[in-house]
Predict the 3D structure of the following.
Amino acid sequence: MNLTDTDFELFDVPAAFAQDAAALDARWKALQREAHPDRFAGQGAAAQRVAMQWSARINEAYQRLRNPLKRAAYLCELKGAPIQAENNTAMPAHFLMQQMEWREALEEASTSQAIQALEDEVSSARKQALAACGRLLDETQDYPGAAQQVRALMFIERFRDDINARLDQLGQ
Amino acid sequence: MALLQISEPGQSPDPHQRRIAIGIDLGTTHSLVAAVRNGVAECLPDAQGRVVLPSVVRYLPSDGRQIGFDALAQLVQDPENTIMSVKRFMGRGLADIAHPERLPYRLVAGEGQSATGMLRIETIAGAKSPVEVSAEILATLRFRAEDSFNDDIFGAVITVPAYFDDAQRQATKDAAQLAGLNLLRLLNEPTAAAIAYGLDNGSEGLYAVFDLGGGTFDISILRLTQGVFEVVATGGDSALGGDDYDAALGDWVLQRTGATVLSPTDKAALRVASRACKEALSASNSVAFSAHFSGAELHLNVTSDDFDAATSHLTARAMTAVRKALRDAGLDREEVQGVVMVGGSTRMPQVQRAVEAFFGTAPLNNLNPDEVVALGAAIQAQQLAGNRTQDDILLLDVTPLSLGIETMGGLVERIVPRNQTIPIAMAQDFTTYKDGQTALALHVVQGERDLVADCRSLARFELRGIPPMAAGAARIRVTFTIDADGLLSVSAKEQGSGVEAHIDVKPSYGLSDDEIARMLQDSFATASQDIAARALVEARVDADRIILATRSALEADGDLLSAAEREAIDQAILALQQTAAGDDAAAIEASIKALATRTEAFAAQRMNRGIRQALAGKNLQDI
């Protein structure tokens, strides 16, 4: 095992979008049982340093694997279709239209119920986009197509953050 | 009872068995020390049989001090020199204190770095840093533990509110050093409570820990599975606690009666009377409030409805943090199986009612809310000291606040979002904005807001020596590393040239190494000891510890090494043994470092084996 192994290799799971969340969680905890710095307390600086590196690496891998969007982006990257979100912002017109509609709806929403309704709609759109992304990755192996889906999902995710920020302001 | 072994002076019979580890709950209102004895965690009492130590330090004119109950008794008589709730000042500057006029102290700006430094409290014995005051409390507990065991303490786990930021954690770590304690870990208070609760009740599943103390509020959501305590999300308010309920009640009384308090004595009297009234209201619906001020006597009746109304905004603040933590965890309130109540302030009936109404289930109060944090810390300390315990636990805690870097226009670029499992390392690439730019100033901030001005400034440092390039051509990778104590270090590296800079965030709000050294000299806890002699003893203890650890590693996994590698390590051990027999502390430290370097590759190979075993589904313990 190596610190530079891929997240999938480190967790010994297939390099695919479809993952069993419970299995990932169990694997994560089993790995941390071996690597966490608490396991090496009082064993000197060398052991502590190594434990810290591995434990941080395992946490990094887990937070990428457990999150479907990050997992998809990582897979695209591994398969040679990097996301490059900063340089690649061209999105289909209908997608951009929907984004604008959502943003307007958020601005107009004044009650937490209205915002919650919008959040529900966005969540279901997110679920559909993730499922489509999964098919592109695991079934058709269309990595550039999946990368495009990931970029769309990043817009959706950012919008969800804005919704949550509004809910925060309303003290919900 | 175990038979006592008599050993040679200076030799302990079995270092594995003899490591005394303690857990300390350094609280706003009171502090406790606990240890595992005969397999059971228990709080250690003082000579009078009291386990609680009021977190109060009174400074006397002749360089003496009173700590705990003795100091508390003088609170009203000598308010300016009797420091209570010092935890609220840890890692804080003057501008951070919300209502300094309510306090009887003379707060002044810290020395050194302008008004951004940690504040000082002016006393009859000079200006005191909150770190020094906290160290007095820690040292008192350390002495209590040493007396209890009639032995030296190997190390301590000290608890901090989960919502403490980097400056507050660093200040607590500094206080431990000042008190002469070997800090094994800073542990989050709700996590400590969960350990004590979970092990006691054999609980599995999702739990919330609602921890309302004297000065801080934490909410943590944890998943308990087979000895793993995984914090899913944490939130809170590091300036919300029983003190605020006291102050709100005091304000209400003043408003109702038209009285005013100006002198330090009156302010202290109002604080004491408000606290007494609040505590009485936990058992009764109506209480007579009475206080003696220099001008007048104040008497009036306070009902629990009055108290609720005067403090409902505070309870609401706590519940807002609870909602936010649940949302961060991606959980509905119904999924939480139980809510463990921690901290003396959860005794207030309105707090109990608010929690029950929100979660729809009666809160769990079956552990003493004052002791549970110290008990959990003791269990963790026992394990970190390498003592065998029957409960093999693993803590996976999170960082409570987002961390980032200032970018153009005073905006924050987040590098580590809140609620990441620690330890963690995360990086982000930045670039230069001017042609030929050779240096980059980095400003590290902590907080959830988008503007730098609204976040806490942790540190500033510079990456110099970048080769001149066109604007935007440099690739500067900034890496944030948070260790298992929740403390941050930051490094920056220009990817093309390899130019690097690194800082252990020991920030604007912390104490400098020089200040710590001077305080150590002056410190009550260490004044009677010869610093050099102590350094030698500590170096020898470290040497013994590392030799022992290395030998047991060789015993377990020595087969991973080639004969030459084995030989090199054996020689480094031998060299360390030789220097440790001498009395040059610096030489011993150097030999320890040499051994550490020599074993680095071996440590990596051992880790590799451990990871493979985990993937194969077997742990060493199962074989």
